Amino acid sequence: MENKVKRELPDDLMNKMGLKPFETTEIGHPEVKRVAPTVRVTIGQNKVVASLDEVIKNNLKDGMTISFHHHFRSGDYIFNMVMDKIIAMGYKDLTLAPSSLTGVMNDKVIEAIKKGVITNITSSGMRGSLGDFVSHGGLKKPVIFRSHGNRARSIEEGEIKIDVAFLGVPVSDPAGNANGQDGDAVFGSLGYALMDAQYANKVVLLTDNIVDYPNTPASIKQDQVDYVVKVDKVGDPDKIGSGATRFTKDPKDLKIAQMVNQVIVNSPYYKQGFSFQTGSGGAALAVTRYLRQSMIKDGITASFALGGITKPTTDLLEEGLVRKVMDVQDFDKGAAQSMANNKNQQEIDASWYADPHNKGAVVNNLDVSILSALQIDTDFNVNVMTGSDGVIRGAVGGHQDAAAGAKMTIITAPLVRGRNATVVPSVETIVTPGSSIDVLVTERGIAINPARKDLIDAFKNVPGLNILDIHDLQKMAEKQVGVPKPLEYTDRTVALVEYRDGTIIDAIKEVKD
Fold first, then answer.
1. Does domain 249-484 have CATH number 3.40.1080.10?
2. Where are the alpha helices (DSSP H) in 159-241?
3. How far apart are CA 254 and CA 469, in angstroms?
4. Taking the domains of the chain in order of start, what are their residue ranges?
């Protein structure tokens, strides 16, 4: 069957799994039902147990769904620790449903798949050896990729039913009151883990720092927690950034950042009290610096900044240039440490952040969203999931959510990366539909979605903005790197990409060896 962005979807899987093809970015006003976890009543307040092995043995069964969070990013020690025990105990046919999968988890997931421990995965993304393994048919059942807002929606509506959540935290009291702001391994906001804590049947906290009761502020609360397990070390906070938050010195990135800033300050949304979301890459950090200079010069302050938060954003908060930071995840140690010291850095869960099926997500209040792309095509469809070789190497993250919610969504991307075009006739995988994208900024010029005639009028006389048709940018990229040979895939589907409402926007096929 074909969906509304003209992607062919596998009829057999769609029918077998009861899935619907993507139709529209318009969410409307559906009435939805929320589910609730099965709760075992706890009388005593000391939930500290001596053995993780016993917790697993007494609560996990074959065929169950387990979850983890990825707030430690490359500094995570919990995932491999828990999975080692699950693999050794010989469990089978588990569904792995983490908020996302990072590189430090890859080898253990591959081992678990090969041994039949994990047979299903749903996640925001995967990279490296695991992405390559899945792309070449290593997992029998297709992975389901969901945005952060869609994962929250899926948990709340029971599409993802978590049996046991294993959540690493830098501090907890014996009753299970925990946060990510204190302790040796701070990572800041627990935004994605809060969904697991609220909806999982069993919640297991793992920490290296148990403090006296009551521990406050409590992001995860004692009424949600079944067990507290003391471990030697939960993670390395210095690896939270994982190299993603270094300032760029690349002239191409800096030029793109300057043009993005020009787009923002000349848009109808740049005014007192505007709001924005930026990413964590080098160009995005540079945008924050240029935007700061413009805001100081123009005497403008922002009402809030949103999303995965970096120190440059919390610096704006400290300077009074941003009134509030709505924080679902911290991308570096500086941002994580800031949360403990500034009451205006508000921790938010993934539902509050971006769930399309609630009474109002923060993304719906965004004026400007700055996002990246592995590929963008001439219909403005964006791929952040697969490389030019067809291999899975990215994550949906909050891309669909921020793009859908913001009044102006800007994609930043170089015209080419190495010998591969970024602006292409048709992306390998559609993650975010072109109807959600307003402006593309490359080092060679910008392209504006033809549907946004208001922005075309706003930018047409701005000095320094080289406005081009996106087809012209595509031809420039093609002239620079040539026309690649079409990729070869088998007929087998290795992953399905959901849109934020749960419909299927694209299918990823197995790459031929």
1. yes
2. 193-199
3. 22
4. 45-237, 249-484
Query: In this structure, what token pair is assigned to residue 78?
Result: 């919990």
Q: What secondary structure does DSSP assign to 348-362, as a single string?
A: --HHHHH-TTSS--G
CB atoms within 10 A of CB 419: 10
What does pTM read for this prediction? 0.96
Task: Indicate the CATH number for domain 45-237.
Answer: 3.40.1080.10
Q: How far apart are CA 403 and CA 330, in angstroms?
A: 20
Domains 45-237 and 249-484 share a fold: yes
Residue 394 and residue 102: Cα distance in Å, rounded?
Answer: 10
What radius of gyration, in Å, describes the C-alpha atoms of the chain? 22
- Rounded Cα distance between 448 and 469, Å, is 7
Minimal CA–CA distance to 222: which of 180, 176, 165? 176
The closest of 135, 216, 226, 144 to 182, measured between CA atoms, is: 216
* Closest CA relative to residue 370, chosen from 461, 273, 269: 269
Specify the length of the chain in residues.
513
**C-alpha to C-alpha distance for 286 and 130, rounded to whole angstroms:** 31
Matching residue, tokens 């769930």: 355
- Beta strand segments in 339-454, E: 345-347, 368-372, 375-377, 382-383, 394-395, 408-412, 416-417, 420-421, 423-424, 439-442, 445-448
Query: Could you tell me if 113 and 138 are in contact, meaning their C-beta atoms sit under 8 angstroms apart?
Result: yes
What is the C-alpha separation between 378 and 376, in angstroms, rounded?
A: 7
Burial class for 33, CB neighbours closer than 10 Å (0-12, 13-18, 19+) = exposed
SS3 at position 449: coil
Measuring CA to CA, how many Å separate 385 from each of 230, 393, 428? Answer: 36, 6, 9
In tens digits, what is the pLDDT along the chain, a chain of 513 residues? 999 999 999 999 999 999 999 999 999 999 999 999 999 999 888 999 989 999 999 999 999 999 999 999 999 999 999 999 999 999 999 999 999 999 999 999 999 999 999 999 999 999 999 999 999 999 999 999 999 999 999 999 999 999 999 999 999 999 999 999 999 999 999 999 999 999 999 999 999 999 999 999 999 999 999 999 999 999 998 887 654 456 678 889 999 999 999 999 999 999 999 999 987 667 778 899 999 999 999 999 999 999 889 999 999 999 999 999 999 999 988 999 999 999 999 999 999 999 999 999 999 999 999 999 999 999 999 999 999 999 999 999 999 999 999 999 999 999 999 999 999 999 999 999 999 999 999 999 999 999 999 999 999 999 989 999 999 999 999 999 999 999 999 999 999 999 999 999 999 999 998
Q: Say which residue the tokens 């935004």 belong to.
A: 191
